[in-house]
Specification:
Structural class: alpha+beta
Length: 244
């Protein structure tokens, strides 16, 4: 029991470098990565080691894929869903990716896959908001307000879960390749977008809970308007093309 430690993940799409550095620090203390889970890492007690960790994305990885990393000095540690793979190597080993083109390819596939989920969920959320609003003002039967109101909550959650990583991967790709926007302006836009996304998420959750427990009285039209604005912000971010 005391030979196992579980460490929560902040989200690989948002804190990949920080978490790989964290795993290295744990390895120095004698806690070696064993498994990667949906919400964090499972570490096992062992002799302290000076290791560096690196993460890669590859769907349906085969033997040839892992052999390539092994030849480069990297040992496969664990995988999740045969898509996310973590490798380790002694400190000082050359990075897995040594140029911007190959490193950006690592995130492009993830960006495309999250985008495929984010855009339909955003569109579905917008449609539900419109239909609920039409039912509220008696343009269509009231039964649709109840039906699409129930559908709206999970679609909003899916939108948030998919678009935040999508936006994060988008920025990573542009950071690696270099944006046509000046670095200072690009970093400002990036930081503002991330802050705005977090604020909108917190506001939506807070309003929902406060309204649900009758602490405040907010009209549904106002709540759905905020939902719509949040969805549109996320949707526009997903439509932005990556730099080439």
């Amino acid at each position: 029991m005391f030979n196992t430690k579980y460490v929560r993940s902040k989200g690989l799409a948002f804190a990949e470098n920080a978490e790989m550095a964290m795993l290295s620090l744990y390895a120095r203390e004698g806690w070696i990565l064993d498994k990667l889970g949906l919400f964090g890492y499972k570490l096992k007690k062992a002799k302290p080691q000076k290791l560096q960790y690196s993460l890669d994305y590859r769907s349906k990885a085969d033997e040839e894929y892992f052999s390539y990393f092994k030849q480069a000095g990297w040992t496969h540690v664990c995988s999740m869903s045969n898509t996310i793979h973590i490798f380790s190597a002694p400190e000082g080993t050359n990075p897995i990716y040594t140029d911007s083109d190959t490193e950006s390819e690592k995130y492009i596939s993830q960006y495309k896959s999250t985008k495929q989920l984010a855009i339909p969920s955003c569109l579905c959320s917008i449609l539900c908001i419109i239909l609920v609003s039409l039912a509220k003002y008696n343009y269509i039967p009231d039964i649709y307000r109840q039906i699409f109101g129930m559908i709206l909550i999970p679609t909003i959650m899916i939108t948030i879960i998919s678009t935040f990583p999508c936006i994060s991967y988008y920025f990573k790709i542009n950071e690696i390749k270099g944006s046509s926007i000046s670095n200072k302006k690009y970093k400002t836009i990036k930081e503002l977008t991330r802050k705005l996304a977090r604020i909108m998420f917190i506001v939506l959750i807070a309003l929902f809970l406060l309204s649900h427990f009758n602490i405040i009285n907010i009209s549904k039209s106002a709540f759905y308007s905020i939902c719509l604005i949040s969805v549109l912000i996320n949707l526009s971010s997903c439509f932005m093309p990556c730099s080439r």
